[in-house]
Citrate synthase
Amino acid sequence: MTEIRKGLAGVVVDSTAISKVNPETNSLLYRGYPVQQLAERASFEEVAWLLWHGELPNPDELAGFVALERSLRPLDDRIVAVLDTLPVTAHPMDLVRTAVSALGTLDPTLLEKGGDIDRTLNEQRAIALFARIPTVVASIQRRRRGQQPIAPRDDLDYSSNFLWMTFGEVPPAVVVDAFRVSMVLYAEHSFNASTFAARVITSTLADLYSAVTGAIGALKGPLHGGANEAVMHVFDEIGEADRAEEWLDSALAEKRKIMGFGHRVYKNGDSRVPTMKTALDTLVEHYDRADLADLYTRLESAMEDRKQIKPNLDYPSGPAYALMGFETELFTPLFVAARITGWTAHIMEQLEANALIRPLSEYVGPDEREV
Ligand code: ACO
């Protein structure tokens, strides 16, 4: 009998030096550094560099990278035109996916011999996507609200500029910092579904834009990145803290999956949740929204009581993004903006020792027969 591991659960498919998820100790390391320490002490730009290069940047490297990243933020007019053509009501994940795919068509180096999988060119592409995805996401948020997109500013760091382009002002430091923390926590998580999708596509020697476009598609689903959006729909459905237990009991009776809870790898709690919950607490205090914190706690406790299943990162990040002022449909595109770092690091790692990813299946259809 062939042993089938549905969903590749528990299957080790390759090695990676980018991050280590340890479910026993509930820890997550990026290139050896605990993610909690990075969230406390590093900028998102430093974390991006770390994921790509394996070491934190020295001051000169950081200055060079930051200057380049800021210069790459504006969008080519043709990308703006593509976004203008598409319905403003389309799901933002579909718009971001399309924008990334369109960016690939504007990269002439893809047509050079070997240029599509060249490491140096891929690093440049990774930086360009890191710089431009925020401009795309912010413009989508503004279009949805009937507002004109705001051009990026090169005097602001990544997080401040992202919020500036979205809201037309740089919010207080507590808000910018909570946003930075969320980006650091979402940046990388080893062989999750979207990263694996990117690696599968890369393994065929397709280009980086193709791999990232596919990864965005994989991230959209509510069992993966789409859960941060789905969490907020749950909060809206429940409405107030007093209804949390009743809502949960009927949702579980209908065999619904409760979004923002559970994880394929962590069974005793997601290592990233405490750090994001602290960031959420600062936002709750800043915006004076104890009601939201109550709902959060009541649903979490009820889930622990009924199912002993703990929250994942999407549970605190959803309400955090809502408090910052993002529309719910924009939450997963924010995850894209963060995870572009991890995806592109994995794409480059895959190419360093590539083998086509092509598993087997057990055939269970009809036996051979005549037409
Ligand atoms: N709500 C209700 N029950 C759950 C949940 C949940 N969120 N998560 C797991 N369970 C239950 C399952 O129903 C199953 O119970 P059973 O054995 O009685 O049938 C058991 O726990 C095991 O669950 P599986 O779905 O088999 O576990 P798996 O490892 O395949 O799933 C997953 C992990 C997909 C994340 C799941 O927990 C889930 O659907 N969660 C909700 C979606 C979500 O929040 N996704 C975000 C993931 S993290 C991220 O992308 C940052």
Q: What stands out?
A: The chain has a mean pLDDT of 97. The beta strands are 19-22, 27-30, 33-34. The radius of gyration is 21 Å. Residues 7, 222-225, 227, 257-264, 307, 309, 312-314 surround acetyl coenzyme *A (CB under 6 Å).
